[in-house]
Design goal:
Strand content: 15-25%
Number of helices: 6
Distance between the termini: 56 Å
Helix content: 25-40%
Largest sheet: 3 strands, antiparallel
Structural class: alpha+beta
Shape: globular
Order of helices and strands: EEHHEEEHEEEEHHH
Strand order of the largest sheet: 3-4-5
Length: about 230
């Protein structure tokens, strides 16, 4: 993908889109998917999706600047978050999902509130937009990495810094600060028990050594604190 003064060049954008879909196709090994055949992609995301299915919704204006689509293919509906096409109280579920991801080696990159989809009808939360996630710890070779600064760990701004599971711990802690407060870690703004705020503050420690060392440990402390608070209030 290349940038010009007038925006994204069309052909590199198609190449970027094709590469992204090919990567995603490899991540769902053995599972056929009508949207994950990179050999078929010869146009922009919106044009391609309109050929393989019917676009019934279009979402613009999130933090990433990318467009998302609701696409119907035969009797199924899919949510598709593009990578490169520019457009004009369930934290426990998110942490549980990331605990499972990190057990498989994945490190969160470019996670923010737009990476979550909540179904108000069923009360379920899904983690989406995983195209930037990495399958093992790595060194920051960018300096300021991709992402929303509201959620990013200090090492995501530091060239050469190690980005690992403790980074995901920080990101999940920041998610709690955003969803349960006003983005700060003050007691006045936090909508939860004081003990839970202590858990979040530990996860958001600037020094990775002072954080929970795994997402599973953070998730366990979070869940135990919620349970204790519920029992104390019952």
């Amino acid at each position: 993908m290349q940038l010009t003064r007038h925006g994204l060049e069309s052909e590199p954008l198609v190449d970027h889109w094709r590469t992204f879909m090919g990567i995603m196709g490899k991540r769902v090994k053995g599972v056929p998917h009508p949207l994950l055949d990179p050999k078929l992609i010869t146009s922009s995301p919106s044009e391609y999706l309109d050929v393989v299915g019917e676009i019934f919704a279009k979402y613009e204006g999130d933090d990433s600047g990318n467009v998302a689509f609701g696409v119907a293919v035969d009797a199924q509906r899919f949510f598709v978050k593009t990578a490169g096409e520019s457009g004009g109280q369930n934290d426990t579920g998110a942490m549980h999902s990331h605990a499972e991801l990190t057990q498989q080696g994945w490190i969160a990159v470019d996670f923010y509130d737009g990476s979550l989809m909540y179904n108000f009808g069923t009360g379920t939360l899904r983690v989406i937009d995983l195209d930037m996630y990495r399958d093992k710890p790595f060194r920051n070779v960018m300096g300021r990495m991709f992402g929303s600064s509201r959620f990013m760990a200090p090492e995501e701004f530091e060239l050469g810094a190690l980005v690992d599971e403790r980074t995901t711990v920080f990101v999940m802690g920041r998610a709690a600060a955003v969803f349960l407060a006003d983005g700060t870690l003050t007691g006045e703004a936090f909508r939860g028990p004081a003990a839970l705020l202590d858990v979040v503050r530990k996860a958001c420690s600037p020094d990775p050594i002072e954080r929970y060392q795994t997402v599973a440990a953070f998730h366990g402390a979070w869940s135990a604190t919620w349970t204790d608070a519920s029992l104390a209030g019952s």
